[in-house]
């Protein structure tokens, strides 16, 4: 029987970027947008607040775009300060690259295993799905989901009792499956 685990975001991740006021490197997304139109051109920014001093910084979303080329539903979401749009834009690699930012997902996600009935079986097959592109070490997920230490999970990998089609070292943010034999 295949167990389904889901990595779910619990809040927005922190934005890693240097503050020009206090040299801190963590910002939190305010969920607010600033939109500025000049004749036929429009700019839009996502506002982020420094975690240390509260200084506001702007992340460019739209830059000097023709108003007619922007989807009306996107404009509505910007004007409504749509929190879902904030989450989408933080996940967007183009926005992250343009603004030279990274995301800090520490303490911003949880693992939903659907219960602990799998813990007593000899062999468990698990499908791990990511509800958002959250980079997490598979060893950490498996340890948390199975109630093991990370060292124990590493030992099971070395002994060949924990196998997967993907590399279990490093970080993953995409769906994967694994089999654990006790």
Structure write-up:
Helix content is 23%, strand content 38%. It is built from five helices and ten strands. The strands form two sheets. A five-stranded mixed β-sheet has the order 7-1-8-10-9. Strands 5-4-3-2-6 form a five-stranded antiparallel β-sheet. The chain is elongated, with a radius of gyration of 21 Å. The two termini are 16 Å apart.
Annotate the secondary structure layout.
Elements lengths: L1 E8 L4 E3 L9 E13 L2 E10 L5 E11 L5 H8 L3 H9 L1 H7 L2 E3 L4 E4 L10 E8 L7 H9 L3 H9 L3 E3 L11 E6 L1
Parallel strand pairs: 1-8
Antiparallel strand pairs: 1-7, 2-3, 2-6, 3-4, 4-5, 8-10, 9-10
Helix pairs in contact: 4-5
User: Averaged pLDDT, please?
Assistant: 92
Helix content: 10-25%
- Characterize the main sheet: 5 strands, mixed
Give the helix tally.
Answer: 5
Uncertain runs are none
SS-based class: alpha+beta
Write down the Rg: 21 Å
Overall shape: it is elongated
**Span between termini:** 16 Å
The total of beta strands comes to 10
Describe this protein with a few key phrases.
182 residues; alpha+beta; five-stranded antiparallel β-sheet; 23% helix; DUF1062; DUF1062 domain-containing protein
Short note summarizing the structure:
The protein is an alpha+beta fold and 182 residues long.
């Amino acid at each position: 029987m295949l167990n389904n685990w889901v990595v779910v975001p619990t809040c927005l991740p922190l934005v890693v970027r240097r503050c020009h006021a206090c040299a801190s490197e963590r910002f939190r997304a305010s969920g607010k947008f600033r939109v500025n139109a000049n004749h036929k051109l429009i700019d839009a920014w996502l506002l982020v607040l420094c975690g240390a001093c509260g200084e506001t910084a702007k992340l460019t979303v739209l830059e000097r775009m023709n108003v007619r080329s922007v989807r009306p539903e996107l404009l509505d979401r910007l004007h409504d300060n749509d929190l879902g749009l904030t989450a989408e834009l933080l996940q967007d690699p183009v926005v992250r690259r343009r603004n030279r930012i990274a995301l800090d997902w520490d303490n911003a996600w949880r693992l939903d295993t659907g219960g602990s009935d799998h813990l007593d079986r000899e062999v468990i097959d698990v499908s791990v799905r990511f509800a958002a592109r959250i980079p997490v070490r598979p060893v950490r997920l498996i340890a948390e989901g199975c109630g093991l230490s990370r060292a124990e999970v590493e030992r099971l990998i070395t002994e060949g009792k924990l196998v997967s089609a993907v590399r279990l070292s490093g970080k993953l943010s995409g769906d994967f499956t694994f089999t654990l034999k006790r």
